[in-house]
Design brief:
- The structure holds 2 protein chains of 2 kinds.
- Chain A has one domain.
- Chain A has helices at residues 19-28, 44-63, 77-101, 105-108.
- Chain A is mostly helical.
- Chain B starts with a strand and ends in an 11-residue tail after the last strand.
- Chain B folds into 2 domains: 3-118, no CATH class; 121-246, Alpha-Beta Plaits (2-Layer Sandwich), CATH 3.30.70.
- Chain B contains 7 helices and 9 strands, in the order E-E-E-H-H-H-E-E-H-E-H-E-H-E-H-E.
- The chains are: A mainly alpha, B alpha+beta.
Chain lengths: 111, 252
């Protein structure tokens, strides 16, 4: 499923750190000091970076053939929608079949 | 054009020289700027890339950001092998050396206090993943025989997923408790998004532990021993990192 050679390089002394591990630390942790160049990493910029990171990596991951979350209903809203649509269609079909088996029964049952 | 000063970390003076081939952000070698009883690790970066406007644009660029983050972490990593650095957040930039000196003076007491607390300690990252569900799920094939059968199958599958989650969470909780007892301090970070980390499975624990360097071997063994404990659960260890997650106030 994965192609390890193209995943982010492990960093440091035998650590299996991925890019997310590094960004998590250098962007979110560490001592905050107002330098002469004022960039507030906690501001809106960082949010956009994070959002873009996720989008960019999804595309990159797809290039690498890592897309299992696409079909996992717990992780992908599209997969969840697809599953509901499938279920819905299957149920409709069953109802239609049942009504065919006993024609006229469903309407008569109404109180 | 004059260069700006990019500051990676503040340390106490140390004797061992840095690796000679070490390069920092933008490719320039890091230098030591000594002031009072402290050392700032700095390198020159081009103003064209690090003035406010350029930096804002660069931070939105994933490729630039990952190269810069890795270069920053590379210098911190090199420092970690020779001393206990106090890592600064990415892109802490000053106009010149005197700006850096002024900053050291202003924060001197803070720096010394935190450095005392972290002296000789490193950070280990431990993540627990719930592996993706096996493809060969023993789900009954074919159409459900009845509506009741359909609902039963659905309940079973929801139930199985729920159970896997609970098992993984219980495992993560007990692992964290065990490691926290061994470590001097710990921090729980937000679970990583699998799309961002490109790691398979769902991240259920993302924690950092502060461990004396001298006890690190035992800590690593402790983590290694749990790796085959639970099926369907993966434990990952990263480090040793500089104590990034512990530069704030200690947990009371």
């Amino acid at each position: 499923m994965t192609t390890p050679s193209r995943l982010p390089e492990p960093y440091g002394q035998g650590s299996g750190a991925n890019l997310a591990d590094i960004l998590e630390r250098v962007l979110d942790k560490g001592v905050v000091i107002a330098g002469d160049i004022r960039i507030n990493l906690l501001d809106i910029e960082l949010l956009t970076v994070k959002l873009r990171l996720i989008v960019a990596s999804v595309d990159k991951a797809k290039e690498m053939g890592i897309d299992w979350w696409e079909s996992d209903p717990a992780l992908s809203s599209r997969a969840r929608r697809d599953e509901l649509t499938r279920e819905n269609a299957a149920l409709r079909e069953r109802v239609a079949r049942l009504e065919e088996l006993e024609p006229g029964r469903a309407p008569k049952e109404a109180p | 054009m004059t260069g700006l000063r990019y500051v990676y970390a503040v340390c106490r003076p140390f004797g061992t020289p840095l690796q000679s081939q070490l390069t920092g952000v933008g490719g320039a070698p890091p230098a030591l700027l000594r002031h009072h009883g402290l050392v700032a690790v700095v390198s020159q970066v081009p103003a064209a890339d690090f003035c406010e406007e350029a930096l804002k644009a660069h931070l939105e660029d994933l490729d630039w950001l990952s190269v810069t983050a890795r270069a920053h972490q590379g210098v911190i990593d090199a420092l970690t092998t020779v001393t206990t650095p106090l890592p600064l957040r990415l892109a802490t930039v000053f106009q010149d050396d005197s700006g850096v000196r002024t900053m050291i003076e202003a924060r001197e007491d803070d720096f010394l206090r935190i450095l005392d607390r972290l002296e000789g300690r490193v950070e280990w990252g431990v993540k627990v993943y719930l592996e993706p569900e096996p493809a060969a799920e023993p789900a009954p094939a074919g159409q459900p025989a009845s509506g009741r059968d359909y609902l039963r199958r659905r309940r079973q599958s929801t139930h199985a997923t729920e159970e896997r989650w609970q098992r993984a969470e219980a495992f993560a909780r007990s692992l964290h408790e065990g490691l926290s007892r061994y470590a001097e301090d710990s921090r729980l970070h937000a679970p990583q998004n699998s799309a961002l980390s490109a790691e398979p499975g769902r991240n259920v624990l993302n924690a950092a532990y502060l461990v004396p360097r001298a006890h690190s071997e035992e800590f690593v063994e402790l983590v290694d021993r749990t790796k085959d404990e639970a099926p369907g659960i993966r434990v990952e260890l990263t480090g040793p990192w500089a104590a990034y997650s512990f530069v704030g106030e200690a947990t009371p």
